[in-house]
């Protein structure tokens, strides 16, 4: 990127801009090379300007929330990574059972707030790291089991911006949520409005405590990771973790990365792993599951 372009960017954007920013500091895996440009937008107008700038200069854009479901390559991201880090994107407003929340708000904090305010629906999201924007994009939730609801089940509308800088409201009828997916890839999510139900706080708190203890028992939380690497296959009697475990792959090491000994669908960064180490383990798992169960696994984490 030449000097004129950098001057143009700095002149038109109010938020923080950094060049060659290491993404390892912005992802839960603690892996990844640098992003050419890292931008923390100040507000919605600023975001529109940044998106227009990227369009004008044909620059690739990636929006990162908490970075808890991402693996970026060792050579980094060639383009611009945008983060909605400013307080403008972290507002919450509750009117009765209607909750409006900014995309930058932390998900677990939101669940705690709902418990305190007596609002039911988000308990299965307790302990999920990351932002509301990331959770909506991923349709994060308890599990593939429909009894445990995902965030998309509660959304009535979203405020979004398309990549040419135009903000709009998407209503429920415009939204498609599935198991860890949504139809939002053409938008930056700015704010979500959710309809929840009334419930007594002590009921919600005890439900959260149960979910948390389930997660602490099952998940590998003592080493950096990006949570479950693969989606559970639809028509299999086994979960991904069960298949990987039955294949004896738990504990397999590649460089500094390891298939977790505790939860086989987690890959952990045990000791300064590279992105290549993680990709190697992903390759091994995919190959062995295909050979033995004839199931092509789909990634849940996003590789950028
Ligand atoms: C220890 C651990 C446990 C986890 N447990 C669970 C679990 O139980 N259930 C579950 O569902 N997930 C789980 N996850 C995965 C992850 O936390 C969720 O997917 C989370 O919702 C991702 O949010 P994020 O803000 O970190 O998104 P990121 O990782 O930053 O981004 C994920 C995707 O969302 C997009 N995105 C982020 N913000 C925006 C935005 N504002 N607008 C448009 N697109 C956006 C990104 O471009 C990317 O494609 C776990 C992860 C870890 C590390």
Q: Which properties best describe this structure?
A:
304 residues; Uridine Diphospho-n-acetylenolpyruvylglucosamine Reductase, domain 2; Uridine Diphospho-n-acetylenolpyruvylglucosamine Reductase, domain 3; four-stranded mixed β-sheet; binds flavin-adenine dinucleotide
List the helices and strands and how they pair.
Elements lengths: L2 H10 L3 E7 L11 E7 L3 H13 L4 E4 L5 E2 L5 E7 L8 E4 L2 E5 L4 H11 L1 E2 L11 H7 L16 E8 L4 E5 L5 E2 L2 E2 L4 E9 L1 E2 L2 H18 L21 H7 L6 E2 L2 E3 L7 E3 L5 H19 L8 E2 L1
Helix pairs in contact: 3-5
The site of flavin-adenine dinucleotide has 31 residues, from strand 3, helix 4 and strand 13.
Strand order, largest beta sheet: 6-7-13-9-10
Low-confidence stretches: none
Order of helices and strands: HEEHEEEEEHEHEEEEEEHHEEEHE
Query: Can you tell me the CATH class of the largest domain?
Result: Alpha Beta
Q: Which bin fits the share of residues in helices?
A: 25-40%
Number of domains: 3
Which compounds are bound in this model? flavin-adenine dinucleotide
Report the total helices: 7
Average residue-wise pLDDT: 94
Radius of gyration: 20 Å
Overall 3D shape: globular
